[in-house]
Amino acid sequence: MTRYHQPAPELVIDRWFNCEPPLSIGALRGRVVVIEAFQMLCPGCVAHGLPQAQRINDTFPVSDVVVLGLHTVFEHHDAMSPVSLQAFLHEYRVTFPVAVDQADGSDIPRTMRAYGMRGTPTLLLIDAVGRLRQQWFGQVSDLTVGAEIMRLVQERKLGSELTWPEDNESSAALCDNNGCSI
Amino acid sequence: MTRYHQPAPELVIDRWFNCEPPLSIGALRGRVVVIEAFQMLCPGCVAHGLPQAQRINDTFPVSDVVVLGLHTVFEHHDAMSPVSLQAFLHEYRVTFPVAVDQADGSDIPRTMRAYGMRGTPTLLLIDAVGRLRQQWFGQVSDLTVGAEIMRLVQERKLGSELTWPEDNESSAALCDNNGCSI
Amino acid sequence: MTRYHQPAPELVIDRWFNCEPPLSIGALRGRVVVIEAFQMLCPGCVAHGLPQAQRINDTFPVSDVVVLGLHTVFEHHDAMSPVSLQAFLHEYRVTFPVAVDQADGSDIPRTMRAYGMRGTPTLLLIDAVGRLRQQWFGQVSDLTVGAEIMRLVQERKLGSELTWPEDNESSAALCDNNGCSI
Amino acid sequence: MTRYHQPAPELVIDRWFNCEPPLSIGALRGRVVVIEAFQMLCPGCVAHGLPQAQRINDTFPVSDVVVLGLHTVFEHHDAMSPVSLQAFLHEYRVTFPVAVDQADGSDIPRTMRAYGMRGTPTLLLIDAVGRLRQQWFGQVSDLTVGAEIMRLVQERKLGSELTWPEDNESSAALCDNNGCSI
To answer: Which in B99, B156, B166, C96 has the greatest CB count within 10 A?
Structure first.
């Protein structure tokens, strides 16, 4: 009855805003990680995705849930440079950590490619042992997101008092010195 | 570390809409019960509370979560009779079961009084063993509601595969032939 | 170049709320009259029509524009009695005058029939000489409503300093001691 | 009874998007001109100002009302270059003409300074003879904007069939070969 979930690919990042030192999925093991993949000139990200990420950040305690932004630029690269992003984050009062996905010479940056994202906004939920549990492209309701985040929080809390067998296995494969990866 | 939660007072109902036969908290044991206490002429209920209840109803499977409306009229009694309520439910396309809280000769109807509600809208969350777990007066965000509902769903699912000691005790006290009560 | 506009049928009213003494279209000659025809249990009226009417009331000076509500009940008559309406107006803080359209033994009340309304909400604009100039069924944008109201206000203001020939004719036919009528 | 209105300062523009050839207030004489001054990274502009400008553009016939955007960057200049603006206009589907206000070596660009704007968004209404009639900083309701635009449209239409004395005077001063200026 245990479904198998893929380990979440590690973030490959050029630069971080709103955090010091750099974060990684591996370093956040033990907490649920919510990643909002966005582009600063994507209307759906600005109107829906980022405000929802900020609400998640403001609703759950950081000891349970960590919210990250991921700037996955796959078009208009000149228009969405880190300089523009920094001004954007300042003006839109985004307070959670935001990472710039690393270009690989193609239009699609590395982390975006690793997750097979179809576009922006994409919302990722990663559980406390580093497995990718949800990946939504486009809008998803707050009710659903709140419920799915709590599902992962509760798994951890209720599971850790008991035994959670599949964790022990998968955790070995998930992380090395550089963070967690496939 | 186990917090004590009060058993949810049983509903005292004059009449049901959208369901056959009548429901009770006792009869819904095993599922999470969400109750939206409202008045049909309460603007906050119409604009926020009831649409949120409908979204909850549409988001969670009825095998896990049951949504009920509770018409707790404490003012303008002549204006919010069951005849008016029936038209209201029809026009607003409320599809989940709605109960009319029973008057006791005072302004405050019986179930509203039993829960110590401060007004409408009030949203109640009752867990799968019949305990009152949340009672919000006024607006509460979808993120929080979604998370708190899933907390109760997960307790049941994860708990029932293990042992959930406080359930066995409290369940005895919660229910009799007439439903669940203190 | 002068288009012919029908005189607005006079209101046939059972009862007024929020005003003393009763109003009529005839008595409001010289001002633009905006009428929001609604039913208290019509979701589109509650969500859009009435808030828009209140915004109109709050935006334009009453010396230029008078906003009236018209309760045109054509279904669920028992559920939308004057007693229910009074509570509704109180709870929804409707401050402009509201008239109850007079039943004629059929489902459709008299004023609603006289205007040939197709349902609720319907927004009527009547110019300063009592002619029906706009009749919108359903939603209409604030931009359009604001513009069309000002069109009528400006006609009056700019027109009255000049001569406004068609007024003199039509005004004779519009009004008698009982108000203005066809 | 005639109030004096200032001639609207002419636009001083580096570059136009969505139009060919360049526009000017002078060249638009005879029509009402609505100018939305914005910055692409100003949240209030993106959420309210630009959608309102687009609605105005879609509501009024272009023979009566011309809507222009004016990119008045006074902060984060590197982040809001014309390259970034072009991508922004594409992604946000802004279809009306947009001008880039010309820098003068200070933080405040030339047109913004000439109008004494306090920030963005600022909405300007210019009448058919080139006078500045409204200048709103921040949000203003669609009802008010619709009404004030129609006031200017009607002045023109009703006025031109009569005589509109102050126009003749002021129009002489407003325009030369280069457009209209003070």
So the answer is: B99
